TrEMBL record:
This is GDSL esterase/lipase EXL3. PANTHER family: GDSL ESTERASE/LIPASE EXL3, OS09G0540400 PROTEIN. Belongs to the 'GDSL' lipolytic enzyme family. Residues 1-16 form the signal peptide. CDD domains: SGNH_plant_lipase_like. It holds the Pfam family Lipase_GDSL. Transmembrane segments: none annotated. Keywords: Signal. GO terms for molecular function: hydrolase activity, acting on ester bonds. SUPFAM superfamilies: SGNH hydrolase (SSF52266). It comes from Oryza meyeriana var. granulata.
Length: 281
């Protein structure tokens, strides 16, 4: 969920409409000055998650940030680069793939941990990641919790109850447990790092309400995605060659079976910004 949230947040802040990938081939000096994304789709706090789907681990994202700071200094000078990093807002969004695609689908972590122990494992890794980010100069850090994973279309299809594809309660409980632990850990980090501009952002509640009460937000469909059947297709499977799309994605909460639509993200950001993000700026 990171990339579209980044784009919507950047737009809400009046910076730009799209936050480019740091590894993009057409990155400009202005991109370096105004913000980039280090996200690798499918990764997670757990290093095994990135290994399973062959994407960059979050540790490598930190390494790219270090490299970025050197490039930024080359463009703006050391003093200006340090100021830009100090005043920037960092958005950390991970964990959903750890639960949905690692713990419940891959027969490894579920044999090593019960869900409570795995959540503790993830929380500790998340804490270490935030500490490392802080050591690299980040001071305004918004850390997003997990969404209601069991209500995501693909998880309804895989584990939901009956023909009605109800939300999976176990996955939702895991997300809620992680969110509670993460919020508690961030509260501790505020004290130990003496940094009140590290904050927890709850995305569970607003997305759950959009899914449960779609008409309240002007949506018609919240149990499947706009792409294809909406039950299983995700990412690259949503293209004009392999899948049809709905007539109007603005009527759908989800674009594919895992990610919300642009309109859903915009609603989420408009809700989250004054309640969480604005307080960190």
């Amino acid at each position: 969920m990171t990339l579209w949230l980044l784009a919507c947040a950047a737009s809400r802040l009046g910076l730009k409409e799209l936050v480019p990938a740091y590894l993009g081939t057409d990155l400009t000096d202005d991109d370096l000055l105004t913000g980039v994304s280090f996200a690798s789709a499918g990764t997670g706090y757990d290093p095994l998650t990135s290994t399973l789907v062959a994407v960059l681990p979050m540790e490598e994202e930190l390494n790219m940030f270090v490299e970025y700071k050197e490039k930024l200094a080359g463009v703006a000078g050391d003093a200006a680069a340090a100021r830009i990093v100090y005043e920037s807002l960092f958005l950390v969004c991970a964990g959903t793939d750890d639960i949905a695609n690692n713990y419940y689908l891959a027969p490894v972590r579920s044999l090593q941990y019960d869900i409570a122990a795995y959540v503790d494992f993830l929380t500790q890794i998340a804490s270490d990641f935030i500490k490392q980010l802080h050591r690299q100069g980040a001071r305004r850090i918004a850390v997003l919790g997990m969404p209601p994973i069991g209500c995501v279309p693909s998880q309804r299809s895989i584990a939901g109850g009956g023909l009605g594809r109800e939300c999976d309660a176990a996955r939702n409980r895991a997300a809620q447990l992680f969110n509670a632990k993460l919020e508690q850990e961030i509260s501790c980090l505020q004290k130990t790092l003496q940094c009140q501009s590290i904050g927890y952002v709850d995305i569970y509640g607003i997305l759950e309400d959009m899914i449960t009460n779609p008409s309240k937000y002007g949506f018609d469909v919240s149990t499947r995605g706009c792409c294809g059947t909406g039950d299983f297709e995700v990412s690259l499977l949503c293209n004009q060659l392999t899948a049809t799309t709905c007539a109007d994605d603005r009527k759908y909460v989800f674009w594919d079976s895992f990610h919300p639509t642009e309109r859903a993200y915009s609603i989420m950001v408009d809700y989250l910004y004054p309640r969480y993000v604005e307080k960190l700026l």
